[in-house]
Design goal:
2 copies of one chain form a homodimer. Chain A has 173 residues and is mainly β. Chain A contains 1 helix and 10 strands, in the order ββββββββββα. The longest helix of chain A has 4 residues. Chains A and B meet through strand 2, strand 5, strand 7, strand 8 and strand 10 of A and strand 2, strand 5, strand 7, strand 8 and strand 10 of B.
């Protein structure tokens, strides 16, 4: 099956080995964009491949409507940021990432191309000024819609021994 | 401002100290429910307060449409699971969690009540059989809609020294 033309995007080529499915006729729930992410990267090719490659300070700009929700956020050293990768196709189930060149399942990848293009990044919080949060650890395009901010709890979110077997052969216990 | 009646839910009482906002007139994007989460918990009061409290094996059941996307997932020791907390009100910006009794901002909490009720859990993968994944580390209601599965990369996702200051006074460097 080939990718639907309507999802065509020159930044996401349909490579040999990739597989798309027909999307459901409708979505099941709606999300609000609660703000925007400001980064130095205006095109996908400029984004770092891995957020740890970059020390760039990015900002989360939250809409005034939600401002009160930021109370106590400044006490967190790290945050979970969810955002909407609005330029990615949603119908790819098998992908061949350019930098690996091997076919993988979408749910084994962090590619923005997925049924729900919700990205998750762990960021270090540098400061909060009004509705603006300065952070490091992002690798997304400037203007990316923000969905959520959560406190990062090491007790439940940190798994330092986790292994992605296809990426690194040895698997942890 | 009081919480909109239309968002009323007996499982989420409007407590003194809580603040709701008027929701935007429409959502900005749509999500697909890609499957369901099966857990032992049928009511919110039965759910563990913290997923680490429970060794319960839960299952992620992915719709057949997306099955090919599971390729290579079995090589991951841990996964990030995103799911939709469909019973939670979306308009609370200040909350008074019952087990803390103190007013906090929504973005400083992991409460399901938030503008976009997308929960994130880190789970240990026990096995994959067809479109069913057996995992530990979840604390949600049986039947919760599934949004996404991602590989957990310790290199970018594990921050063992992260601190939530309001929860534990000492803050890491």
């Amino acid at each position: 099956m080939t990718r639907n033309e309507k999802n065509g995007n020159p930044e996401f080529g349909h490579r040999p080995g990739e597989k798309a499915v027909t999307l459901p006729p409708q979505t099941d729930a709606g999300v609000y964009f609660i703000g925007r992410i400001r980064t130095p990267w205006k095109q996908r090719k400029d984004c770092p491949k891995n957020a740890r490659e970059s020390d760039a300070v990015c900002t989360l700009e939250i809409d005034a409507r939600w401002a009160a929700g930021l109370k106590d956020v400044e006490s967190c050293s790290h945050l979970i940021v969810l955002y909407w990768m609005d330029r990615a196709p949603r119908d790819l189930v098998l992908q061949v990432p350019a930098h690996y060149g091997v076919q993988r399942g979408t749910f084994a990848l962090r590619s923005p191309a997925r049924p729900n293009p919700i990205a998750m990044s762990v960021v270090r919080l540098l400061g909060v000024e009004g509705v603006t949060l300065r952070v490091t650890g992002l690798d997304c395009l400037d203007g990316t819609p923000l969905l959520d901010i959560k406190p990062y709890f090491a007790s439940t979110d940190a798994e330092p021994n986790a292994v992605v077997g296809w990426h690194r052969p040895e698997k942890a216990d």
